Amino acid sequence: MDPNNCFGGSERLATLARQLRLYKPLQILATKPISTSRESKTVKGRSFLRGDGGLRVILTKRSSRLSTHSGEVALPGGKADEGDLDDAETATREAKEEIGLDPSLVTVVTVLEPFLSKHLLRVAPVIGILSNKNAFMPNLNAAEVEAIFDAPLEMFIKDENRRAEEREWMGEKYLIHYFDYEADGKTYVIWGLTAGVLIKAASVVYQRPPAFSGAEPQIQGS
What we know:
One of its GO terms (molecular function) is coenzyme A diphosphatase activity. Residues 40-194 form the Nudix hydrolase domain. It comes from Actinidia rufa. The protein has a single domain, classed as Nucleoside Triphosphate Pyrophosphohydrolase (Alpha-Beta Complex), CATH 3.90.79.10. Helices cover 18% and strands 32% of the residues. By secondary structure, it is α+β, with helices and mostly antiparallel strands. The strands form three sheets. Strands 1, 4, 5, 6 and 7 form a five-stranded mixed β-sheet that branches. It starts with 10 loop residues before the first helix and ends in a 16-residue tail after the last helix. The radius of gyration is 17 Å and the shape is globular.
């Protein structure tokens, strides 16, 4: 069987998948107690590319009716259920519940180092590849998701449309990164934990560090 078949015949995506499957997450020693709850977020590179040929990532705007993080930009994903086998299953199941993404359309290639939210929640970024735009027909869960859009993954290691502010949490100082992005006539602000996950994901995928400092901490403030 041609290994490129699951990536729409794209040798580039097949090569990217092979590269990411070899990624070994760093062993991070937690200095804060970690909640027993966990979340998994999906970070998806897609082959329906713009003219520049760059990979893109699916993002959502959370419903303004939610009790926490309402109206914020987020990656598809959520808390683990007891029956979930691993982070990849949590991420793909939640993506289906939130935006109607069929897990069979996603090839999971790696799981990055976990992030720790300010609520001491472990968040595992799961990278998967969706190779066919036309096969994905979004079906938003209105109770959780207000809008869906996609953005260039590479923008999260560039120092464009970015700003940052220093904060302190539990005696430690850290930077919160904000990225402004326009899609379909609307401006979205991608920040906090979501921005941190995407900075890390872009660094791994493109195999180069961000063009700015302060992206190293795994503890994020949102």
